[in-house]
Amino acid sequence: MIYILLTWLLAPIWWPISLLREIAAREPRRILVVEIAGIGDVVCSTHLLKQLRQRYPDARIDLVIDPIVASFSPLLTMVDNTICFPYAAQKGLMGRLRFARLCIDYDTGFSLIPGAAQLTGFCLAAMPRRLSVLPSPIKTSYRFLQPLLTGYAVHAPGEFFVKTQGKLFSLLGLINPDCTKWLPPSVNTQSIGLDPSAIHVGLLVSSGRQLKRVSPENLADIIIAILALQSLRPIKVVLIGGPGDRALADNLLSLLHANHQARIVNAVGEYSLAELPTLLSQLSVFVGVDSGVTHMADALQIPVVCIAGPVDLGEVYLPGATRVFLKTSLPCYPCSTVFDAPATCRMGNLACLKKLMSEDVGRSVSILLKLERQA
Questions:
Q1: Is this model's pTM higher than 0.90 or not?
Q2: Domains in the chain, start-ordered, CATH in brackets?
Q3: Beta strands, E only, the chain
Q4: Exposure of 359 in the CB half-sphere (CA atoms within 13 A)
Q5: Average pLDDT over the chain, rounded to whole?
């Protein structure tokens, strides 16, 4: 709070400068989009970034991301540069000053996953245009920052979050911005080939958040349920995850019978984020919790079975015939939203994941496979 008060105290200095800069740059020429969050958040914003580029083809557009998204950067061809700036580096006076120094070069700033350090940085850098998404209800710190912004869009609980971000982009001239997820082609020009005679169902083995991780035992039951489905072509399960998930994948395979192991393709840790679209595009269905890779599959129009766990899926996925959402009816669901994402289970039992029935996943995969055959 002290840094917000300091920003207000310094307003007689930076505010007139920002007005003069706006006169000098009537149209955005150097745009900084800040999305220091997870992979899924960036995937959800790619289409808006694409439209921003189309609206301002000659502007410099840079994107600030968390280092965890760095390997995804080659796909972000609609921006000129990606800048890694972890959330932890914004803390304290020096962190905020470093962020403000970064902002000085830009005349327009978007904060898509807002933080007080980012918004004070926009102000101290005397950015002419300072735009941000804000939570509803607006908390105390954001209530003090709101008058310092030149534009904002308030996110209503339960609303599709990309729609809220679209409202923010529309303040800069995007007319009815499309909120459909989109991914550019993979950077991998070599063929990542799966057996064309088989049906492949992708299965995410882990998540970046402990709160959303399905146990290996549950994953093994899900695999067995999928492989038991009747189909004209053989069904195989493709395990997908990052390099840090290899031990988990090995443990998962050890829980399965040899006959099941023979029908599994272990792709865990084999491909970078920028290469994954080539693999995902060959899947008939993708199964996973809410995660960056699940959003990638959804953006590629792959039918998705999304396991909600604690997450309010209505905020991050649009309803559709090719999306099946598996969620519990527990009174504590949902406990994880865009602006309130706990690190641990408040009930202490992860019941929303432990009550997951493998038969429900298998049934959902079967429904989506039938839709694919009818298409």
A1: yes
A2: 2-170 (3.40.50.2000), 199-374 (3.40.50.2000)
A3: 30-35, 60-65, 81-84, 108-111, 129-135, 151-155, 199-204, 235-240, 264-266, 285-289, 304-307, 323-326
A4: 1
A5: 90
